[in-house]
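Entry details:
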Amino acid sequence: MFVKETKAATQGRRCVVAVLLLALAAMFLAAKCHEPNTRVVVFLQGYYTHYDAQGTMSTALEEHTFEMLKSAFVVQGYAAERLLDYGYEGGTVSAAGEWQPAPYSCGDTDRRSEESLRVLERMLRDYRERHPKAHFTLVGHSLGGLLAFLEGAREAQRPEGERLGIDVVVTLDAPLRGVDADKKIILDNFVPCTVKTYAAGGEVVAAKLDAGTPALRAGQATAMAAQGIRLATLGNANDCLFSLNLCLGTTFVDDGATQYVAEAALSKSYAIASNPLLSHIAVLIEPAVVADTVGFVGAP
């Protein structure tokens, strides 16, 4: 037996439906995707760094790593939520579509590149699930720069349907072509971290010992360019980590040239004056480097 719905009941049901629709619309707006082709910048810290409740590690030059660079990107028109920190222990994308890296310790950075790249790729895929049209710029310092370069090379080899949206890579004081084992003296004596396995460092030293590494890096840079991935390799000519003679006044192998790949769209050296103990991070606040990085990446 059918009961005819009263006018009041009909109006009440319509009100409930309207409220539900408004709630769904509000949820959609809270978790909305970026506009198509939105550029997102991912910053990668280096060897024996950390991330905690306060953010990326502080240094004698910056309260947080990449602080100067991020400020310059904001001036360029980037929203702060589109400037992301890579986490060596991964992270999550919130219901509102914002990335939050998980805390990690200095020891978590001391692993082979394959493992760190797997975490990076998961980050980019998770973020792109919420923001399908996002395009990524990878900006990495030191070991983070090497990881950014290697990920750009992997992106260039992916089939079109499997791309992660990486189209710009910037490396800063990165050991792209490896370094001599004598650099371990810096890690042993001047870099604080209670857990040091030298897994990452051993891989970088092995790259220097491999005579084929320069040709490999040149080929990877060329492949990136062919796939539309713009690469900049920037470095400090006065970085004591690569040229220990500048700081310790004795005979060490000069690895200053390892920071650059000639086949990059932009490959540039800067003679940055700084305290020798700060020379490896001075590149992050050098005005010319900051301007060149933001200019190379371009508008959001």
Residues 1-5, 15-34 have pLDDT under 50 and may be disordered. Residues 7-30 form the longest helix (24 residues). Residues 34-297 form a domain with the Rossmann fold fold (CATH 3.40.50.1820).
